[in-house]
Amino acid sequence: MKHSTYFLTFSVLVMVFNVVKGQPLVPALFIFGDSVVDAGNNNNLYTFIKSNFPPYGRDFKNHMPTGRFCNGKLATDFTAENLGFTTYPPAYLNLQVKGQNLLNGANFASGASGFYGPTAKLYRAIPLDQQLEHYKECQNILVGVTGQSNASTIISDAIYLVSAGSSDFVQNYYINPLLYKVYTADQFSDIVMQDYIVFIQNLYALGARKIGVTTLPPLGCLPTAITLFGSRSNECVERLNTDAVNFNNKLNITSQNLQISLSNLTLAVLDIYQPLHNLVTKPAENGFFEARKACCGSGLIETSILCNKDSIGTCANASEYVFWDSFHPSEAANKVLADGLLLSGISLIS
Fold it and tell me: Which residues fall in a coiled-coil region (predicted)?
């Protein structure tokens, strides 16, 4: 135990030293998934799952909305900073000129996407298999800009972050009788897990060797979940949290098996369940004032187009709130989550 603690401390010190010297720890960061990490790819889609309008982005640079489902930075933005990047992976579909802008990575995530393909189609979002197609285009552009050898190095040494699964449950399974009347939550999680396996195998086939995948958060603690499924209680919905824990257990086992079967793959499961659960259940101990209601509007149901400049009662100081809207963490909460991701993802950079 002591040896592993010393190794972790040493690794963190090396990381800090390199970042201080102005050297990113990896050549690029590529991001796939859902609205928790979407940096604006949904902005020009024919979907109501978007956030390119106030008050989204009010605490971001220039106080402008970018399509991030947050008042400010996403956890992946903080992760990019922690890795030593001075810019964030740009939303791939928003880039006017790609070329050089892709040298440090790109963001392919789309709000309301999931491992389960039909989830994205319900909301006219970009499914993960299409996100991979965009990544293939990105690879070809990199080859054109830097040459095959340099592009191959960027691709193999980059970190790939994946955040998906929450929409499959909260925005599909729990509200879709075609699913919840046919499958138990356990059976549905098995279906989602098979799609996860295929996605990782396909990403690996495209050259990814350092992949971090986030767990499901405590689904039953999301303000919108408590409002919809909490039976007028202000407490986390334990049934939903149990589903998330069961899914996360499968995610861990499945990821271990994938890492064994795919040579030279480092596949790290990044836990956001426990850190976010801690913030929700012990807000004051973590420097937060409010964990049940979100900052935007009433804080009980508003997200996406329901969180807008006319929303009544949007809070003055989002840093006191665990949630920005009823589905997504605030910038302050994202900072806490990102610091946890850095430690749990140490294998990706050591």
Answer: none
CB burial of 317-347 (b: ≥16 within 10 Å; e: otherwise) equals ebbbbbbbbbbbbbbbbbbbbbebbbebbee
Q: pLDDT digits over 17-75, tens only?
A: 455 456 889 999 999 999 999 999 999 999 999 999 899 999 998 999 999 999 999 99
Number of residues that make up the chain: 350
**Six token digits for residue 87:** 């810019």
- Dump pLDDT digits (tens) for 243-284: 999 999 999 999 999 999 999 999 999 999 999 999 999 999
CA–CA separation, 209 vs 263, rounded Å?
Answer: 9
How many C-beta atoms surround the C-beta of residue 307 within 10 A? 27
The yes-or-no verdict on residue 192 having pLDDT over 80 is yes
**Residues 216 and 274: beta-carbon distance below 8 Å:** no
Measured between alpha carbons, how far is 183 from 42 in angstroms, rounded to an integer? 30
What's phi and psi for 270, nearest 5 deg?
A: -100, 110
**Arithmetic mean of pLDDT, 90-105:** 89
Residue 163 burial (C-beta neighbours within 10 Å; 0-12, 13-18, 19+):
buried
8 A C-beta contact, residue 193 and residue 254? yes
Question: Residue 2: CB partners within 8 Å, gap ≥ 6?
Answer: none
Q: Are 228 and 289 in contact (CB under 8 A)?
A: no
The strands making up 29-33's β-sheet, listed across from edge to edge, are 105-107, 29-33, 159-163, 210-214, 266-270
Closest CA to 280 of 329, 228, 331: 329
Strands 266-270 and 210-214, how do they pair? parallel
- Active-site residues: which are they? 35, 325, 328
Q: Where are the domains of the chain?
A: 28-348
3-state secondary structure of 114: coil
CB neighbours of residue 24 within 10 Å: 16
The answer to whether 185 and 250 have CB atoms below 8 angstroms apart is: no
Question: What topology is assigned to 28-348 in CATH?
Answer: Rossmann fold (3.40.50)
DSSP output for 75-110 = HHHHHHHHTT-SSPPPBGGG-SS-GGGGTTEEE---
